[in-house]
Specification:
By secondary structure, the chain is mainly β. It is built from one helix and 15 strands. The longest helix has 9 residues.
């Protein structure tokens, strides 16, 4: 019986292990041996995070059919009201969108906040209400109240160089962003007709999809794809 540790790459090379990560192909016997030695990575404790309007702007708790004791605040707090919060798929990064510069704050996560990651070289230009990671955790998207209304960056334990804006921008202030489960599409809800803009995604924006034949009737406040 073989097992694959979450997030690893299956390969023919010998597996490696440390407290923080594991990679490669594992037999059940190998897993048991490393677990007995105390060096098999443990599953992440489920966490619930809430963004709020007053300092510390974000609160996080262990979750197991109820709230555990609140985790310590990040050493470097977000600079204003928390609006949107997201974990990446590996649960080792947490991001918060907020209305004051730098408009997006990201932190390593391992049963608590790590040292805040450096801001992106190109900041959003105004209030950010929503943030999302793509399913593979290789891109992060954040909305903005001013043009281009949506900003996207490569993500690898920090922000890469901002991706080019979509050729056809959303029509107004971005209020919510989401990737589909396969990571091949990105959607932005906004406050000006057509109120929703969708694009193919492949390490950058494709040509905007046609608007729905029946538009939402007013400001798009949130968007989500089904699984």
């Amino acid at each position: 019986m073989s097992m694959r540790y979450k997030g690893s790459v299956i390969s023919a090379t010998a597996p490696t292990v440390a407290l923080g990560a594991a990679s490669g192909v594992w037999t059940l016997v190998q897993q048991m041996q490393y677990r007995a030695a105390g060096v098999w990575p443990q599953p992440n404790t489920p966490v619930i995070a809430v963004a709020h309007t007053t300092t510390p702007y974000i609160s996080t708790y262990p979750w197991s059919a109820g709230f555990g004791t609140k985790y310590a605040n990040p050493a470097t707090l977000p600079t204003g009201t928390g609006y949107g919060v997201a974990f990446n798929s590996a649960d080792d990064t947490i991001a918060l969108a907020h209305p004051s510069s730098p408009f997006i704050s990201t932190y390593p996560w391992s049963a608590g906040f790590g040292t805040k990651y450096a801001n992106p070289a190109t900041l959003p230009a105004s209030t950010s209400l929503s943030v999302a990671f793509n399913p593979s955790g290789t891109a992060i998207a954040v909305t903005s109240f001013v043009s281009p209304y949506i900003l996207t960056y490569p993500w690898s334990a920090g922000f890469g160089t901002k991706y080019a804006d979509p050729a056809t921008l959303p029509a107004g202030a971005g209020r919510s962003v989401a990737f589909n489960p396969s990571g091949t599409a990105i959607a932005v809800a906004h406050n000006t007709t057509p109120f929703i803009s969708n694009y193919p995604w492949s390490a950058g924006f494709g040509t905007q999809y046609a608007d729905p034949s029946t538009l939402p009737t007013n400001t798009g406040s949130s968007v989500a794809f089904s699984n």
